[in-house]
# Entry
Amino acid sequence: MEAVIEDAARLILSAEYVVALTGAGVSVESGIRPFRGPGGIWTERGEPSMDGYRRIMADPKAYWENRLRPRSRRGFGISLADAKPNPGHLALAEMEEMGVLRALITQNIDDLHNRAGSRNVLEIHGNRTKLRCVSCNARFPFEGFDLSELPPKCPECGGFVKGDTVMFGEPIPVDVLNRCIEESEHSDCMLVVGTSAVVHPAASLPLLVKRSGGHLIEVNPMETELSPLCDVCIFAPSGEALPILVSALKRLKD
Ligand code: ZN
# Structure
């Protein structure tokens, strides 16, 4: 594995603009179960209803009343609120701190990249700790938001506010989607970590990098559909591989 990681480090250091794309695999080592694939919550219980977003838009008050109802744990391996960043998250934050990584696009909603210290984080599917206005896309921390009136109103425009997490049937917010596309088009090296990147729109982002002549580095425990397209494949859990990658980057940088 060390030799492959060394190859990845050289590729990263020779690139102008490195971007990471992460998915559920990064958070598995924090005890968060993935939705899809082996051991996934949806694999076990079936996918949630496809019309969640339509129902919210039809009756936002009912959505909020349901959301605020106390309930038992919802079946994540451990409670999302108790999960902590793992060495994979921390290594990505360190790569940004070193000036090596410019942006981090994630499909995860668990807030762990932010908590690990990453700054330029683009959350394609939203963030569970935030709320978002359905009219103007302004985002607010869930904690402390005025919920005395349901559905709560956006302080910016008066539109109604829902959880920032993107639901089935809900379009990806255009502001985030456009920034993900811009960062990918700008990138000449993408690190794809903990995701097979088969779900759109994330799936198209590595292809944008590849199409403009850039390189792809994959970090996944097993081969994925993306592997044949990648220049370097590191088949290991991100919590193991990324700290070694950071050490290699530091060594080669000097
Ligand atoms: Zn608004």
In short: The pocket of zinc ion is lined by residues 133, 135-136, 138, 154, 156-157, 159 (CB under 6 Å). The longest strand covers residues 101-106.
